[in-house]
Write a structure and sequence with these properties.
The chain has 218 residues and is of the alpha/beta class. Helices cover 50% and strands 15% of the residues. It has ten helices and eight strands. Strands 2-3-1-4-8 form a five-stranded parallel β-sheet. A three-stranded antiparallel β-sheet has the order 6-5-7. A hairpin with a 5-residue loop joins strand 5 and strand 6.
């Protein structure tokens, strides 16, 4: 199984990717996690990415493409993968298609998870991150507030700049104008599938598995 998870920020790509990785026993490759690790480690890439992500903008194509190529070309991804967070622009999609050709990858699917903008803003603006271990918690689920101690390690919970409502709205605008057109690209290739992400995590997961099992690549 080679799967690209697609959808606006906050639709639940990361959550579903982890579940599907367990189902198919293949690695979950999250470009967001890789970038956040670089930020936490203070690497040159991390410093550059932090400024861009805090402003709600997309990381440059050359940085992302190089990062993804290194991961997909590794032995860990030789038996399949779930790519979460890439591509985000039509140029990235075209570069990824070329990369797939070079790596001999032909059988893959693009799963589009759809959630309303209102629900996305509510979901993301309720997130808090631990300054110590980077774990994310929801104010709706845990009843935590900014400044509260992390349930796991006691570190301070805070709201990231890119999880504030005004930044989220900007990110959704960026998504609409720059990222959503790549759906047509994958539709033309006959590999795009769409699932409603407004249900519970469990039901969305169940519906995704049904869709993957019932749909064949053209």
């Amino acid at each position: 199984m080679r799967l690209l998870l697609f959808g606006a920020p906050g639709v639940g790509k990361g959550t579903q990717a982890k579940l599907l990785a367990d189902d198919f026993r293949i690695p979950h490759i999250s470009t967001g996690d890789l970038l956040r690790t670089a930020v936490a480690n203070g690497t040159e890439l991390g410093k550059k990415a932090k400024v861009i992500m805090d402003a709600g903008k997309l990381v440059p194509d050359d940085v992302m493409i190089g990062l993804v190529r290194g991961v997909l070309g590794s032995p860990a991804a030789s038996k399949g993968f779930i790519l979460d967070g890439f591509p985000r622009t039509l140029n990235q999609a075209r570069a990824l298609a070329q990369m797939f050709e070079e790596l001999g990858i032909h059988d893959y699917r693009v799963l589009n998870i759809e959630v309303s903008n209102e629900a996305i803003i509510r979901r993301l603006s309720s997130r808090l991150m631990c300054r110590n271990d980077g774990k994310i918690y929801s104010t709706e689920t845990y009843g935590a507030t900014a400044g509260s101690p992390c349930p796991d390690c006691g570190g301070e919970l805070y709201q990231r700049d890119d999880d504030k409502p005004e930044t989220i709205r900007h990110r959704l605008e960026v998504y609409s104008t720059q990222t959503s057109p790549i759906l047509k690209f994958y539709e033309d290739l006959g590999v795009e599938l769409t699932v409603n992400g407004m249900d519970t995590v469990e039901n969305v997961h169940r519906n995704i598995n049904r869709l993957l099992q019932s749909t064949e690549l053209r």
